[in-house]
Design a protein that fits this description.
The protein is α+β, with helices and mostly antiparallel strands. It has a domain of 74 residues: Beta-lactamase Inhibitory Protein, Chain:B, domain 1. The chain contains four helices and four strands. The protein has a four-stranded antiparallel β-sheet with strand order 1-2-3-4. A hairpin with a 2-residue loop joins β2 and β3. The longest helix is centred in the first third of the chain and has 31 residues.
């Protein structure tokens, strides 16, 4: 029983610590989830050209020693704004995306892989 209380307490503390970030991410998903860039990047077969055809990025960053690129977008809707990045493999396939900037994703180590996104199930 003590183990159960300790586990529940730990879960509560972790939830409280990450609560602001989690609620912000959920708000961004509700606001921008159907934005054309966000919608297209979640597809498993998106290319760099597909993304460029929808909207030009606000900033382009070279990654992986200049063999690939990461696009920054400043999304805006209903008076709200959010940073969004899309990175590509060296052959031009989308392989990472999220509500952050390319520089933040690079600093977190999220853009190290040159592998194409694939479904695993």
């Amino acid at each position: 029983m003590r183990y159960l209380f300790a586990l529940a307490g730990t879960a509560l503390v972790l939830t409280l610590i990450s609560g602001c970030d989690l609620s912000q991410r959920l708000s961004e998903l509700r606001t921008f989830g159907n934005h054309p860039i966000v919608d297209r990047t979640s597809s498993m077969d998106s290319t760099q050209q597909d993304i460029l055809n929808i909207q030009k990025p606000t900033k382009i960053t070279s990654i992986r020693g200049g063999t690939a690129q990461c696009f920054d977008y400043a999304l805006a809707r209903d008076g709200k704004r959010a940073d969004y990045f899309v990175s590509f493999t060296s052959s031009g396939w989308v392989n990472a995306w999220g509500y952050a900037t390319c520089s933040t994703a690079l600093a977190e180590g999220s853009l190290a892989s040159n592998e194409r996104v694939s479904r695993k199930y």
